[in-house]
Every structure is written in C-alpha cells, then in structure tokens.
Amino acid sequence: MNVCLVNSKILRQLWSVVEQTQTSALVGLSDSDLVNQLLRQLDSKQALSSEEMNSVNSYLFSRTQLIRDLAFARSA
User: For the purposes of burial, counting CB atoms within 10 Å of the CB of 18, is it exposed (0-12), middle (13-18) or buried (19 or more)?
Assistant: First the structure.
C-alpha cells in the first residue's frame, strides 16, 4: 500500500479547489485529465514542490471516485 503524505494545509486547499470546480468538469473528464486540472488549480493557489505534486497526484488518483460521487451529490 502506498502512503501519500500530504499536509493538512494542502489538503484543505485541495478540497476547496474541488468544491469550487464546476460539477461538469469533475464528472466529465477522464481520471488523468481530472487529476491534472485539479493539480494545476491547486498549484496556481499555492506553489507546490515536486514532492508535494507527486503526493497530491497520488492522493487525487486514489480519490477520483469520491470526487465524482461528491460532484453528483452536489448536482442533485
């Protein structure tokens, strides 16, 4: 099992980005496009080191279904 070490500040910002992203983008993009878009948005708010980018990337890939589920719930 891979352990993704992402600090709490980055996690809060990341989930804020998810909440601010349009539902259509969250459900309409492929997993890799979704992760890349969220990473770009997060990186524009706070510059991330390459290690942080890798950790967030892994974290997002492991949470894509949760992100989509939350987007569907938001649109209902």
Answer: buried
pTM (predicted TM-score): 0.88
Q: Which amino acid is at 74?
A: R
**Contact by Cβ (8 Å): 31, 76:** no
pLDDT at 1 > cutoff 60: no
- Which residue shows structure tokens 């980005």? 17
The domain spans of the chain are: 8-16+29-75
Q: Which amino acid is at 24?
A: S
Distance CA 65, CA 34 (A): 11
Nearest alpha-carbon partner for 67 in 28, 42, 46, 54? 28
